[in-house]
Structure formats: C-alpha cells, structure tokens
Amino acid sequence: MKKYLFLLLLLSAVSAKAQTFDEADLVGTWNTTGFAYAPFGVTNIESMTLGDALYPNEKGSASAWSGYFKNMTSVRVRNGEEKTKTAEVEQINDFFISNNNKLHIIQESMTFHFIIEELTPTTLKVRTYDGQNYTFTKDNSSAAVRSASMTRSADGSTYNLSGQRVENVTTDGIYIQNGQKKVVRR
After folding, report:
1. CB neighbours of 69 closer than 8 A, spacing ≥ 6?
2. Could you say which of 58, 115, 128, 158 would form a disulfide bridge with 132 (CB–CB 3.0 to 4.6 Å)?
3. CATH 2.40.128 region(s) of the chain?
C-alpha cells in the first residue's frame, strides 16, 4: 500500500511541474530581434503574427491564413551559389501546441518546432530542439482599446427589452426611453 501511495505522490509531483499552454494565448503579433533558424537557412524574422484571418493576395482577393512572418530573410545554396531572399510576408498555414509545451508553426515548405519555456501576455520564450533560445515580445499597440464612450440618444425613441424599437406602446411591460427604464401598466 505504501508503495502505491509513494508512486501516486511521485506522479502527481511530476505532473504538477509540467506547464500547459493554450494556443489562444499565442494570437497576436510577436516581435523579435536576432531570430535565426539554421536548419532552414532563416537568418532573420522581424515579427510573426498568429491567428486566423484573411490576408490580401496578389490577385486582389483574400486568402485564409493562420498567420504570417514579416520580413523573413533566408539564405539558400543552389548550384554552389548562395542566394539571400527577404520576403515582406511569408504565409503561416497553421500553428498548434502539442504535449502541453511543443509549439509547431507550419509553412508550405517547412515546419518550425519549438519548446515553450515561458508564455505570458507580453513574452514568449522558446527553445529549439537543438538548444537555441529565442524571445518574442507581444505588440499590443494595435490590440489595445484606448477609450470607449457612450452617448445617449434623447430623441424620445422607445425600445423593448430585446432592443427593438417600438413605435406605439400597446402592451404592459418594461421599456427603455431616453436611457431610462419605463414601466407600463394599463
């Protein structure tokens, strides 16, 4: 009995140490400096934007992407000649987290694999399988709500509790007129 109790405690301690990350926390634009992914010849990525959206394509219509890399520079060797290419926007087809902490970013020709070390609302720290560490910082400038305001209409319109405009109040009930609750009993 003691043996099983010890094993149960050991398993719960190990599982308590594991951290689970949520893909929804990755949605947004993440900036980086000095990002280089040697296995694919990537020498720099300015930022990555993750999250389902439509992006305009060359034909003037929109394509559904799961995100994109901005200003991605890569070096390829073909026929003994080294060529550097910088793409303003590189499509990300999908991204997902497996095993609670493995981030996979899938493009058409390659898949990036990372181990998530830390994920906060403003910081993403990842490590490649070969031990390279990278830090991304979230760009919250476009997502933040600066201010919100509400103005009341004083035009005398009356609305029911479903938000529908009512021209003539003919039945008992609760209505809203000029932002004030109005109880009607006949």
Report:
1. 45, 46, 47, 48, 87, 89, 90, 92
2. 128
3. 18-139
Q: What is the pLDDT of residues 53-110, one digit of tens each?
A: 667 666 766 778 889 989 989 888 888 888 899 988 889 999 999 999 999 999 888 8
Give me 10's structure tokens. Answer: 């050991």
Write the pLDDT tens digit of every residue in 128-164.
988 889 999 998 765 444 444 445 556 778 888 777 8
pLDDT for 143:
46
β-bridge mates for residue 47, sequence order: 31, 70
Count of helices and strands (H, E) across the chain: 1, 13
Which amino acid is residue 18, in one-letter code? Answer: A
Contact 157, 164 (CB under 8 A): no
Q: Distance (Å, rounded) from C-alpha 30 to C-alpha 141?
A: 11
Give CA–CA dist 176/158, Å, rounded: 6
How far is residue 165 from each of residues 84, 151, 156, measured CA to CA in Å? 62, 17, 11
Chain length of the chain: 186
> What CATH number was assigned to the domain covering residues 18-139?
2.40.128
Model confidence over 17-39: pLDDT tens digits?
457 888 999 999 999 877 888 77
Do the strands 158-159 and 94-98 form a parallel or antiparallel pair, or are they unpaired? Answer: unpaired
